[in-house]
Write a structure and sequence with these properties.
single chain, about 170 residues, Hypothetical protein af1432, 2 strands, globular, disordered C terminus, HD domain-containing protein
Length: about 170
């Protein structure tokens, strides 16, 4: 299993951390699903796969909601499914309209095919691109996922950009 970017937790050994074991219990059935695993073949941001991005969003949404006493299970599951689509969003011909507004519906339709979604998960998936989508999220967990999604994207892009800068500096320096 991948680990969340920035986390020191070893996702392959959840028994050593009860919180990590709780996270894994929330999403284990989804992580093993063929459609979810297929996201690993699609790039989301720079070199980050769509699956890795979704794990980042899922794990950090889980942590925030867990610590705050909110519905952490729904946040974790929605985070893993929020970008469950299989087209290259950088190619204009691949989408019907604005990707930011369109892909939450595609992800929701795909997620419904593999699991039953509750109202929090549905809201979080459909509205995670707010304010690009006109209707704001209804639940606090949806807001958490929305903001964690944006922050994760920033870190994923920054990780790639900073690696290039450090690589250039290493080559230039004697």
């Amino acid at each position: 299993m991948h680990k969340a970017i920035g986390s020191r937790k070893d996702f392959s050994r959840p028994d050593e951390d009860s919180l990590l074991a709780e996270y894994k219990a929330c999403v284990e059935d989804l992580l093993g699903h063929e459609m979810v695993q297929k996201m690993d073949n699609h790039v989301q941001h720079c070199d980050t796969s769509r699956l890795q991005h979704s794990i980042n969003v899922s794990y950090y949404s889980f942590l925030i909601c867990y610590r705050m006493g909110w519905d952490y299970r729904s946040a974790a599951r929605a985070g893993l499914l929020h970008d469950l689509f299989f087209y290259d969003w950088r190619t204009k011909k691949a989408i019907r309209s604005n990707h930011a507004a369109w892909h939450p519906r595609v992800a929701y339709d795909n997620a419904k095919k593999i699991t039953e979604l509750n109202k929090v998960e549905t809201d979080a998936i459909l509205k995670h691109m707010w304010p690009c989508t006109p209707v704001p999220p209804r639940y606090v967990e949806s807001y958490v996922l929305t903001f964690v999604d944006k922050i994760s994207a920033i870190f994923e892009v920054a990780e790639k950009k900073s690696a290039k800068v450090f690589k250039r500096r290493a080559v230039v320096q004697p």
